[in-house]
């Protein structure tokens, strides 16, 4: 969605309250790790899986991906597949966290401006905590992960829970930016009421018909002020 953020800036004084971040494909370019894990596990256990299917289920829960792999012949249980995938990705991310370009700079600028960031992911705690621990000190005020007991994306529950961590009511979620890259994530964030941006730079998915307010392509030149202008533009509509 194209918007005139410069013009909109002059219409109101609303402030950016928080930024909610998806993890895979928005903070880190980890989808290749997940896809490699899925393809390898399927191949080793009698299943059929490929890159196209991996992208199709990108952003879904481990349970959804595992059930799809089983339906295509992978001879393992749902929990076994999920654990094997997490083990594979965790090992890769311990060696190197694949931060996307310019995102660490933006996280630091948000922290310096006193704008809290919350990581909101379907991934399990061990993966989420590893990313939080490798981020700049103080970059994240908290996180919501896939094993916290909430319904996973595309439910709005993870984002509403993130808001509650900061004392932000459902009515005020519009003053928060949520950055996502998958349909499941975009639906989750938009349903929570957050001003939702689709990050299109690191995914092969076409989300042009998603429920996001606007698209961004990378983080070059993105600042807290840039994000705040999306809030202002939305409120001005």
TrEMBL record:
CDD domains named among the record's database cross-references: HAD_BPGM-like (cd07505)
Membrane-spanning intervals of the chain: none
GO molecular function: hydrolase activity
One Pfam family linked to the record: Hydrolase
Keywords: Hydrolase
Keyword match Ligase: no
InterPro entries associated with the record: HAD-like_sf, HAD_sf, PGP-like_dom2
Name of protein: HAD family hydrolase
Annotated source species: Gardnerella vaginalis
């Amino acid at each position: 969605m194209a918007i005139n953020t410069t013009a909109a800036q002059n219409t109101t004084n609303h402030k950016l309250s928080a930024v909610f971040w998806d993890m895979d494909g928005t903070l880190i370019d980890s989808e290749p790790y997940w896809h490699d894990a899925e393809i390898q596990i399927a191949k080793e256990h009698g299943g059929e899986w490929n890159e196209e299917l991996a992208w199709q289920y990108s952003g879904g829960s481990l349970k959804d991906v595992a059930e799809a792999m089983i339906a295509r012949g992978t001879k393992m249980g749902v929990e076994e597949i999920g654990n094997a995938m997490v083990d594979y990705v965790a090992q890769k991310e311990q060696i190197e966290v694949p931060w996307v370009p310019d995102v660490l700079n933006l996280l630091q600028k948000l922290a310096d401006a006193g704008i809290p960031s919350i990581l909101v992911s379907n991934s399990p705690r061990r993966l989420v905590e590893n990313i939080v621990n490798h981020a700049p000190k103080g970059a994240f005020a908290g996180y919501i992960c896939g094993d916290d007991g909430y319904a996973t994306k595309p439910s709005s529950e993870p984002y509403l829970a993130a808001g509650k961590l900061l004392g932000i009511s459902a009515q005020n979620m519009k003053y928060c930016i949520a950055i996502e890259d998958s349909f499941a994530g975009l639906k989750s964030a938009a349903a929570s009421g957050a001003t939702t941006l689709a990050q299109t730079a690191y995914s092969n998915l076409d989300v042009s018909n998603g429920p996001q307010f606007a698209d961004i392509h990378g983080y070059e030149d993105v600042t807290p002020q840039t994000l705040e202008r999306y809030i202002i533009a939305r409120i001005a509509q």
